[in-house]
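Retry 2 of 3 after timeout on previous attempt. Resubmitting structure tokens to design endpoint.
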């Protein structure tokens, strides 16, 4: 099996009429369209004129371009696309200088263009090469690869990816999945309104683009995408469903992992040369430590374990938590329930996103599916606008002295923009404006994406946002510390996940017999988020310090991690040994992470988040750009490891 770069090789030929092309162009994002014009024609002049899109974070995608300029761009695009239709040729091979010019045109940061050039060169590989392939594994003799065995824990987004890449590399593997189906988080979270909050053209595998019906897909569409992947890459035969890993021990004599799995009450041991954890950070629901939790008389459940047998029609529902999950289901259940009361401890920042519930328009579908390079430039522009570009908005400026409000000048600009959005929504509701305005800098915790639905919902007569702290849960409902009793028929805990107890509840014993969670204590650490000293040939996807706070795609991280892990497997096979990262390499790396964390909003603010351990150290998040992670994980350096 050979995976191809999905961006430029799977396009349908252009058969559209002139009118159809013109119509489709009305749906184009203009900055990526200008880059497509330059790329297809090999003529960079359109980038050198006076049309300059703004690269500011947030804001409309065509900011900085006037209507008149928009018409000029579309007319030029029409000429280039119709010429391509009539005479499809070879794609113009971009020189490094051209690529750099195009990148700096899009992001308007000349100094950063150099960093993105090798990244985009790989993404655009005109030979159809795969940007996330790991060449080192192909250099290992086929027979050696075929004699290896890898156990992957989890068949969610990362576990399936591990399977796809291991299959491509000819390495036998078993995926163990506790659920009866694939998709992980997209299998388990079925609460009303569940959908992805990263744009799908970025939140998808690089090699498996999809003609997404909406910009941000609902859960069922995502689950279907991962099922399609499992099917297309023939993974089902390698997945053991409804099977849980309960324990794993590294056996130094054989240099293999002995993994205990349980299925239907029966245990068995699987032996593997390497183990990849793909269980995610947000997999085990967390119930809050609130007095009386469990004493409530009516139905109660966690948002990630939604009880669909409970009919909420006409019911009084109490919701604890106002994070990403509550944000999505409260507007939906408020249409059904008599009353919904949300107990909010910390106000989330709300980022306006007008496309959040919208279908991808027909013209945009056409452009993405037919016009060479448009999909790639569109993906990169989304990557920049929704992730990389936002990093500047959360950066700490030295000497900035408004810690409760913002951490730097750009962060302050972002705050003003977000507060402006709240003010516009709550003009006639000063009480809600006060409750919904966070008292910490934007980016100190994950902002929530909204097209106005949440803020509008809070204004409904049957929705109540309470900020009085909870005193206890009791038989009748929830009492707040101001002495008020709130009676409910149903309570929903939207209280998040046990993120920092990575791999909980699996017991993992390393080379010296120490259990991983005991070894870590409250401070999980790993080198590049992927390997921990003392646990040879154990690799993590979405491990310590690899979560992203400002938007971005965790799929991108997984693709980087799996490429790195395959490089590690190649090293292990070459040396006939297991890889154990050197303690000093690991420690130096973590110092670098901690230093980076002091320079971003979530590393500065004292607001409560699931990113921090009890000592205040950020154990979950990646503090740099995504492209930095890409660069760092291209291949492992043998000098970083002991071979045991
Ligand atoms: P969350 O964002 O961690 O929110 C948990 C909520 O429960 C917060 O409002 C928290 O308050 C509150 N809470 C926790 N313990 C409490 C207590 N003892 N008393 C009162 N309130 C308490 O959890 P989530 O909404 O499930 O989301 C978790 C993560 O999953 C997100 O950050 C995101 O990364 C991901 N997610 C993504 C999507 C998506 O892509 N669309 C959707 C859902 C979730 P504090 O803020 O004060 O801690």
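Retry 2 succeeded. Sequence:
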């Amino acid at each position: 099996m050979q995976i191809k770069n999905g961006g430029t090789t799977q396009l349908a030929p252009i058969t559209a009429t002139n009118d159809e092309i013109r119509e489709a162009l009305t749906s184009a994002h203009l900055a990526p369209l200008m880059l497509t014009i330059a790329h297809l024609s090999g003529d960079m002049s359109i980038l050198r004129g006076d049309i300059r899109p703004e690269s500011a974070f947030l804001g409309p995608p065509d900011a900085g371009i006037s209507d008149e300029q928009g018409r000029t761009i579309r007319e030029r695009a029409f000429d280039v696309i119709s010429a391509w239709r009539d005479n499809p040729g070879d794609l113009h091979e971009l020189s490094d200088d051209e690529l750099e010019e195009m990148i700096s045109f899009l992001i308007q940061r000349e100094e950063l263009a150099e960093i993105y050039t090798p990244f985009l060169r790989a993404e655009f590989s005109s030979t159809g090469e795969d940007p996330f392939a790991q060449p080192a594994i192909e250099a290992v003799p086929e027979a050696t690869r075929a004699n290896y065995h890898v156990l992957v824990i989890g068949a969610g987004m990362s576990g399936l990816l591990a399977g796809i890449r291991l299959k491509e590399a000819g390495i036998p593997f078993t995926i163990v999945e506790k659920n009866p189906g694939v998709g992980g988080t997209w299998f388990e979270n079925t609460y009303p309104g569940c959908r992805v909050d990263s744009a799908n053209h970025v939140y998808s595998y690089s090699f498996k683009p999809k003609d997404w019906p909406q910009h941000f897909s609902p859960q069922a569409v995502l689950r279907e995408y991962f099922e399609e992947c499992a099917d297309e890459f023939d993974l089902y035969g390698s997945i053991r469903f409804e099977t849980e890993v309960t324990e794993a021990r590294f056996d130094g004599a054989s240099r293999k992992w002995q993994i205990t799995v349980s299925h239907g009450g029966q245990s068995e041991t699987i032996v593997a040369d390497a183990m990849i954890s793909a269980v995610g950070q947000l997999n085990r629901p967390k119930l809050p430590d609130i007095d009386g939790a469990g004493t409530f008389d009516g139905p109660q459940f966690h948002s990630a374990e939604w009880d669909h047998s409970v009919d909420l029609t006409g019911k009084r529902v109490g919701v604890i938590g106002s994070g990403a999950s509550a944000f999505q289901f409260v507007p939906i259940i408020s249409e059904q329930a008599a009353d919904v009361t949300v107990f909010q401890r910390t106000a989330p920042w709300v980022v306006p996103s007008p496309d959040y519930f919208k279908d991808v328009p027909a013209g945009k579908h056409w452009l993405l599916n037919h016009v060479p390079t448009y999909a790639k430039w569109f993906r990169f522009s989304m990557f920049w606008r929704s992730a990389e570009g936002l990093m500047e908005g959360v950066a700490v400026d030295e000497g900035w002295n408004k810690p409760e409000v913002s951490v730097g000048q750009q962060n302050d600009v972002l705050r003003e923009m977000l507060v402006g959005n709240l003010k516009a929504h709550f003009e006639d509701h000063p009480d809600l404006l006060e409750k919904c305005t966070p008292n910490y800098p934007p980016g100190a915790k994950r902002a929530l994406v909204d097209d106005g639905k949440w803020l509008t919902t809070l204004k409904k007569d049957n929705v109540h946002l309470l900020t009085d702290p909870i005193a206890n849960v009791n038989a009748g409902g929830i009492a707040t510390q101001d002495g008020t009793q709130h009676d409910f028929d149903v309570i929903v805990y939207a209280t998040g996940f046990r993120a920092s107890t990575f791999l909980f509840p699996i017991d993992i014993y390393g080379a010296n017999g120490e259990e991983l969670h005991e070894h870590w204590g409250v401070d999980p650490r790993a080198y590049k988020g992927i390997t921990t000293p003392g646990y040879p040939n154990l690799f993590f996807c979405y491990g310590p310090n690899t979560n992203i706070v400002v938007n971005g795609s965790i799929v991108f991280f997984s693709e980087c991690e799996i490429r790195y892990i395959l490089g590690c497997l190649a090293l292990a096979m070459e040396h006939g040994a297991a890889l154990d990262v050197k303690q000093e390499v690991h420690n130096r790396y973590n110092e670098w992470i901690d230093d980076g964390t002091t320079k971003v909003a979530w590393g500065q603010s004292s607001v409560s988040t699931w990113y921090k351990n009890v000592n205040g150290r950020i154990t979950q998040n990646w503090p740099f750009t995504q492209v930095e992670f890409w660069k760092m994980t291209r291949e492992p350096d043998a000098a970083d490891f002991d071979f045991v």
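Attempt log closed. The first helix runs from residue 6 to 9.
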